[in-house]
Write a structure and sequence with these properties.
The protein has 15 helices and 21 strands. By secondary structure, the chain is of the alpha+beta class. The chain folds into 3 domains: 3-71 and 200-276 and 387-425, FAD/NAD(P)-binding domain (3-Layer(bba) Sandwich), CATH 3.50.50.60; 98-191, protoporphyrinogen ix oxidase, domain 3 (Orthogonal Bundle), CATH 1.10.3110; 279-378, Polyamine Oxidase, Chain A, domain 2 (Alpha-Beta Complex), CATH 3.90.660. The protein has a 7-stranded mixed beta sheet, sandwiched between helices. A 6-stranded mixed beta sheet has the order 10-2-1-14-21-20, covered by helices on one side. The chain has a 3-stranded antiparallel beta sheet with strand order 5-9-6, with no helix packed on it.
């Protein structure tokens, strides 16, 4: 039986390990941190590093969660409801009016806060998208939106929140190809596809269960950092503790910065892709003494906070549900370079100020506690140039590559990472 070493314990590595073991390989899953999950992780006390969401269109991810007995830890929003908030005013985007694409279009027509001209422009764009009439090649999101005569109001108040949150970049930077893919497969797919899936327990609990399930068919080694890889008749992976792990095949499932350190020769063959930049994410878990929003998903227009999630409403057996004086909210700011260098108290103060400006009911709520999380290189910044340069799933010099940065036809998302793991196993 061949031994496969999977380096990296995020979703790409989990997917690779799961499917390789299903094919009968002896699998060693190696992760340098103390838990699986990659970008999805938590801290002591059950706080997650932001609000983690899956699209209902993420079929590969949802399947592997089901296979690993973790579906029970997630719920669907059902018909999507997003509360757009601005300076004390709130505009509800509610797709429950009617099922499927019709409901989504009706929700747009009923959405307050956009002029008739903006709505007609968005509808025309969506119609062209659904009938495959948009040529997005070598264009940014902003370029394609202006080409299809989207108003400045529509770009700022409708398109930008979608682009920044889904693709972790600004409209002027991100490849339009990825926006069209996201809209077609997610927002304007089936009713199930357009729903959002969210965890109802601290994310650390999900990955404890994933580790337990994977350990039934794989060897899972946490807190194990690989510092050198050599090959004679087999691969020898040397750890930072001086241990040696032997394998017949290697699947790399690490981030691209880590990949360049482990496999500099292979990375060198990717040419200008090595110039890729990365987008940061800043998130916060904030505990207030009062409940101040009626919706789980809140888009905060014109703020640095961007998105606020009602964790108390979302979590099963939430740590605060038995205490009516503590209510938890998660804030996530994508493409967060503007605030990344601020100190944690400064970020908390900024978010608190914006919350009180947006939600009138929060004015007499006390901020009890907060936790700030920063991820400097959270996702690759996939401009149209970098999207064209993304390496495809392949085996190079005996190393099989996977990760969200690999071009599976998806953005650099959890689903892209899972699919890259599946395709990596096909190359064993």
């Amino acid at each position: 039986m061949k031994t496969v070493a999977v380096v990296g314990g995020g979703f790409a590595g989990i997917s690779s390990a799961f499917y390789a073991s299903r094919k009968g390989y002896k699998v060693i899953l190696i992760e340098k941190s103390t838990s699986l999950g990659g970008r999805w992780h938590g801290v002591k006390g059950g706080f997650d590093n932001g609000q983690h969401l899956l699209s209902g269109a993420y079929k590969g991810t949802l399947h592997i969660l089901e296979e690993l007995n973790c579906s029970k830890y997630f719920k669907s929003t059902g018909a999507l409801k997003v509360n757009f908030c601005e300076d004390g005013r709130q505009f509800l985007f509610d797709t429950s009016i009617f099922p499927g694409k019709v409901g989504q279009l009706l929700a747009l027509l009923k959405l307050k806060g956009l002029s008739i001209k903006s709505k007609i422009g968005i509808l025309n764009f969506i119609t062209s998208l659904l009938f495959n009439k948009i040529n997005s090649q070598n264009k940014s999101c902003l370029e394609i939106l202006k080409e299809y005569q989207q108003t400045e109001e529509a770009i700022i108040r409708f398109w930008k929140p979608i682009i920044v949150s889904a693709l972790n970049g600004q409209p002027e930077d991100i490849s339009a190809e990825l926006l069209l893919l996201t809209m077609k497969k997610g927002f304007f797919g089936t009713k199930a596809d357009s729903a959002l899936i969210y965890p109802t327990v601290p994310i650390v609990r999900v990955f404890e269960k994933i580790k337990e399930e994977l350990s039934k068919s794989c060897e899972v080694r946490l807190s194990t950092k690989i510092v050198n890889i050599s090959k004679t008749n087999y691969y020898e992976l040397e750890t930072s503790k001086g241990e040696k792990i032997l394998a017949d095949e290697i699947i790399s499932a690490v981030s691209y910065p880590q990949f360049k350190k482990l496999f500099p020769d292979i990375a060198g063959s990717f040419g200008s892709f090595n110039n890729i930049q990365f987008s940061s994410i800043v998130s916060a878990s904030m505990i207030y003494s009062k409940h101040f929003t009626d919706y789980m998903l809140n888009a905060l227009l014109g703020t640095k906070a961007e998105w606020l999630f009602d964790k108390t409403r979302m979590m099963d057996n939430n740590r605060h549900k038995q205490d009516r004086h503590n209510f938890e909210y998660a804030i996530t700011t994508s493409s967060a370079e503007a605030i990344f260098s601020l100190k944690s108290p400064e970020i908390a103060e900024l978010f608190d100020y914006e919350i009180r400006r947006i939600f009138p009911k929060s004015k007499d709520a006390k901020l009890i506690d907060y936790h700030i999380f920063r991820e400097k290189s959270a996702t690759p910044l996939l401009t149209s140039t970098m999207q064209n340069q993304r390496p495809k799933p392949q085996k190079i010099n005996g190393i099989i590559i996977s990760g969200d940065w690999v071009n599976t036809g998806y953005p650099a998302t959890i689903e892209g990472a899972v699919l890259s793991g599946i395709r990596a196993v096909d190359r064993l």
